[in-house]
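Here is one chain, start to finish.
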Amino acid sequence: MEEGTVPTPSEPPPLPYSLRTRKKSIAFFWTIFVIDTLAQPLILYWCLWYLTDLSPNLVFSIVTASLGGVSVFEYFYRLYNLFRKNSRARPLNSRVSWLDFFQINFTIVWLILAIELVVGSVPEEPYVRLIAMVLPTVMFYFGIVYLSLDIFRMMGFKAPFRISSTPKGSVMPTALYALIEDVVAVDGGGGQIYRYALRTRYLSSPYFRRMLFEMNCFWSGGSIICAAAITAIVFTVQENVAFTLGWALPFAWAIIWTLITIPWVQSDLRREKKAWAENRGQGGIRWVDDISAPTARTRFASVQANIWPWTRGNQSPPSTSSGPPEKVPDHAPNGVSDGAHDVSNDASGSTPREGSHVDDGTYDGATIGSPNAQQSAEKLSV
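Its structure:
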């Protein structure tokens, strides 16, 4: 092997995070969340409405005042973790804004919901149907925002501002990547080590990017369609039924989508690993977010080809195979640093830029050229 070269690994860069070791904490959180967001408002509504002589205004004032305890705690917990001194949860190399993309959207959606609840509960005769629209509103908001991000990505738009660890002016990231990065890093405790490892995986694997794009379309598109259906139901049926369905149906949708997602992702991760072993990176410019990079057929594409055979010829196979290893830059640091960097996640160029200074406009998230993301991530020094 030539001096200064590194062989392409036989597997995609690892993600140093496991849900299996966190089953109890995940189960605890979602149990409390379901009680707070589903059981509590419905129980309070039915009990106060039918078992007391309280006025409608007072009933819904109590119901709305009791809402969102877990979400409020989570909001300020995230805010503390992002703003505290020497935080290891912030987006990579963010020197100006410490908020991540999810926290910004979390803030906006809470403002929308606050207005919705106040307008719905203040009148003497509350707008029951409007109060029933809280969860569908969340579905509409995140569905539209996250689907729009991927539409802009496919249209070739650059990031107009920093999106978590993706700098302004870089290739627009697929929205699910930003969501996973933020939630696992802050809420899940993965920190900047996970942000770095996920960015390494994202930039090095076209298959991984394609999988996240398809999954984002599935969830975002599904949330918009389901929210529209729930809205039609809420404004059609009787008020008491509308209130119940408005709070219950979003959870039913989320359960169904989750049950579909788990085997889907597991299958795609196995396919990604196989494609990586066979093609050593699967095609495209290494360490660059190239939306047109060829990749192996995903599970969704395989199902689509079986249903619509005429689409089989549209999938581009990987164009690279095991070849000469790439040379590691002499000046590349071992971890995340503020020094020089030789690669860019901007796919508009045909080759990586050499000797570029790392700042908020050019930083691509980390030293992506390292063959072992986990080792480099442990040396994180943002």
